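Amino Acid Chain and Its Fold in Token Form
===========================================
What this section holds: a protein sequence and its matching fold, both as plain text.
Structure line: whole-number tokens from a learned vocabulary of local backbone shapes, matched to residues.
Purpose: to set a sequence beside its fold so the mapping can be learned.
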Amino acid sequence: MILSVTGIIIIQWYFIYTSIDNREEEFSMAVKQSMSTVASEIQENELRHYIETFDRLKDSLGTPDSSQLSNFFMFYDSDDESNLSSLFTFGLLEEDYSIPFAGEAGEEISKVKDIKGIATTRIFKEAFDRENNRRSFSTNTYKRIERINAFDQATYASIFSKMANTFPIHKRLDTRELEYLLRRQLKARKINTPFEFGVFSDGLATRIATNNYKEMQTGPSYSIPIFDDDQASSSYDLIVSFPQKNSYVLSSIVGVASLSLVLTLLIIILCGISLYQILQQKKISEIKSDFINNMSHEFKTPIATIKLAIDAIESPMIINNKEKVSRYLGMMREENKRMQDQVETVLMISQLEKGSTPMECSPLDAHNIIEDAISHVALIVQNRAGIMYKNLHAKPSMISANKQHLTNVLTNLLDNAIKYSEDSPIIEISTFVVENQIAIEVKDEGIGMDPETLQLIFDKFYREQGGNVHNIKGHGLGLSYVKKILNLLNGTIHVTSKKGKGSSFLIKLPLIDNPN
């Protein structure tokens, strides 16, 4: 399970990492395509501006100084069925307007000529004159003169480019125009994140830049040359930076990544719960095994004693001795009662867990219940040369409780204080009133408990010793029973203990008015 979860985590991490890497590549490709398109647009816009300006200047000059027509190509076509033939010619008309353009040093570069295309179509209709044995022709001619933008641009581009390079960049390009073109192209490619740009000339900043652009701009930057010349070289570079690129890229996959992380976390939680349940079930199984071993040991001694008593009674030497028979029968009765008490305790706790036995309560004096519980263990304390102190000073002391169950609760606590004292037990039981509640404190100077044991002592079947250690008898149900009864009586129990120093159990039960 752990290996599978680890593999899922690694795969999810690789998926997210790959998604981010792919998104960054897509982002970079889209930005570069946008910048390339913008670079072409601003150069085409500049050339178109110069051509339109030249056309207006040329039209204002009137007739050109000279014109020259040269055929570029022609071809002939005939159709036998229709008796028609066609001759197509295409030529170039060069018109010199003597408009000079100067270079950087002021010298004249060239005189620009206007170029037009002339297309001519001649259609011949052939007729055969049998009588005169000769042919006659009729001809229709169609001529069209048009401007060829592609040729115009090829002719003018070089001259206009050289002329434009003589002007500073801020006279060739407008910041708002460039920002508009960039924003339009980026938006067309679905890139909606803030950007800053600047134009540099041989590494030096120019006036063409956004207000927030800095040379040490944060975020990734992309560069592309603009205004290329005939040799595809340029002294200007457009640099665009994206300060929020990382957050933009992450936001584009945050939905899928979050869902992936949530599902992975859910798998981890479910696996953790499963492992916890497995360990808890294993622990419960071990505790139940200890309980069965303890109960078996608790039953083994009475059964062995009863068997020995029966064997003794059956002996011919004892069967007629009424005194010994009576003593052995008393031993059998006591051991049988001991086993019955064990079974009743287990059944009673089971019924309390299921809630099948109602708790019948009546007004009782807590001090009387304490005296009754002390009487159950007084002989055991005396046999071990122990001491028991009573400080019953609570006034009032009337509570609503079930006499049998509350007596069992106090007897359990006193019995534990005796069992878990290595030397002669020293026990102190006190009562006092706290906020309309009677507090019953049972203190001992026994072996005490560590913090880990303190957290588990009220769990059913729990015992600090293992099932095979029987120096301290018990079945791990006593304190679980105590906790359950006090909860039903709206009471509480609090334990403080220190290893080797003893333990203190503090019970609090609500007081009632004296019915008498």
About this structure: The longest helix spans residues 245-314.
